From TrEMBL:
Xref: InterPro entries: HTH_HxlR (IPR002577), WH-like_DNA-bd_sf (IPR036388), WH_DNA-bd_sf (IPR036390)
Superkingdom to which the source organism belongs: Archaea
Name of the protein described by the UniProt record: HTH hxlR-type domain-containing protein
Domain HTH hxlR-type intervals: 23-93
UniProt-listed Pfam families: HxlR
Amino acid sequence: MPELNLDNTDERRRHLDIPLMKLDEKYTLTILYVLRNGPIQKTDLINIVASSSDTVKKRVDHLVEEGLVQEVRENQRPFRKMVRLTEKGKRISCWVV
């Protein structure tokens, strides 16, 4: 099996299975970085990222579409909607510094 040179952007993109230009949108990498610590409420994510709620919601929606994060509703009171990384998101977030 050939060795992967993940310093090469094209190889990294193929290996991670997502266009890197989509990760370049403002706050997207920050959101992935924050979610590495575990699930978080969207309102807390907005406060941490320190951006408008619309921007963060759009980025989260985009990350959901890409299969990198998922929104889950907790089944205990108070009912909260949490955002967390998927397995694919965890692989991608490993590259976020």
